[in-house]
């Protein structure tokens, strides 16, 4: 008798294969740029960027638990916030002592994240300048969503001056939390202002 997991795997593979369809160029254009057909254009990637920011925050929580920054992770979220407050100001030291295996995975994950954000920008626009603007827009919203997610779940950052590791590529970038948040807000505001001016001229 065939084991149940193999049967399930076969069904899943057949279902995926049945969903594949080769599209003509005009059909793929309609799918990728469907927002262009709406009577009122909506901000590109807002839901994606904010949702992906939450995913990024969740990854940071898992990583924080792995390196000892979240001693209360076995309990509830309030336990995490209460017990982790004692480590305020020690974040950078803990992250600098990250295991090489975790650091390697984190570097590749960051690279994959940037590629995903860039892919959305490439699909959304055709001109290079517009793609750059969309990438910066999505990046800014993603970054804001990341900090909102962390604050809503584990009550971090504790304050705007809290230290943070922004990226590990190519080397660890550290800063107080208020700086990347301010840059993201200014970036999003500048792009909105530029877009508004473009519509009115």
Structure description:
The chain has about 200 residues and is mostly helical. The protein has one domain. Helix content is about 65%, strand content about 5%. It contains eight helices and two strands, in the order αααααααββα. It has helices at about 5-20, 25-30, 45-65, 75-85, 90-95, 100-125, 130-155, 180-200; strands spanning about 165, 175. Strands 1-2 form a two-stranded antiparallel ribbon. A hairpin with a 5-residue loop joins β1 and β2 (about 175). The longest helix is centred in the last third of the chain and has 27 residues, at about 130-155. It starts with a helix and ends with a helix. The relative contact order is 0.12. Mean pLDDT is about 75; it is low at about 20-40.
- How many H/I helices? 8
Number of domains: 1
- Tell me the series of helices and strands, N- to C-terminal: HHHHHHHEEH
Report the span from N to C terminus.
71 Å
Q: Structural class of the helices, strands and pairings?
A: mainly alpha
Instruction: Tell me, rounded to a whole number, the average pLDDT.
Output: 77
Our Rg estimate from Cα atoms comes to 21 Å
List unreliable stretches of 5+ residues. 22-42
Principal-axis shape equals: globular
What order do the strands of the largest sheet run in, or round the barrel if closed? 1-2
Q: What proportion of the residues form beta strands (DSSP E)?
A: under 5%
């Amino acid at each position: 008798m065939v084991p149940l997991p193999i049967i399930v795997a076969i069904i899943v593979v057949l279902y995926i294969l049945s969903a594949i369809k080769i599209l003509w160029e005009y059909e793929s254009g309609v799918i990728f740029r469907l927002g262009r057909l709406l009577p009122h254009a909506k901000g590109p990637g807002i839901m994606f960027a904010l949702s992906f920011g939450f995913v990024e925050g969740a990854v940071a929580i898992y990583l924080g638990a792995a390196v000892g920054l979240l001693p209360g992770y076995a309990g509830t979220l309030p336990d995490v916030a209460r017990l982790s407050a004692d480590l305020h100001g020690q974040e950078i030291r803990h992250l600098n002592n990250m295991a090489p295996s975790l650091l390697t995975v984190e570097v590749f994950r960051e690279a994959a994240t940037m590629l995903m954000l860039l892919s959305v920008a490439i699909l959304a626009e055709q001109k290079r300048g517009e793609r750059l603007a969309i990438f910066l827009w999505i990046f800014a919203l993603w970054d804001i969503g990341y900090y909102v997610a962390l604050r809503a779940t584990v009550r971090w950052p504790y304050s705007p001056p809290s230290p943070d590791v922004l990226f590990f590529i190519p080397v660890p970038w550290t800063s107080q939390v208020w700086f990347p948040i301010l840059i993201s807000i200014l970036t999003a505001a500048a792009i909105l202002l530029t877009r508004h001016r473009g519509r009115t001229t």
